[in-house]
Amino acid sequence: MSVSFEGVGQVCATFLGGKLTEGHVVKLSAGGTVAACEDGDEFCGVALCCKDDACTVLVRGFVTVGYSGTAPEVGVKTLQADGKGGVKTAETGAGCLVADVDTTDKTVTILL
Question: Does the predicted TM-score (pTM) go above 0.90?
Answer without folding.
Answer: yes
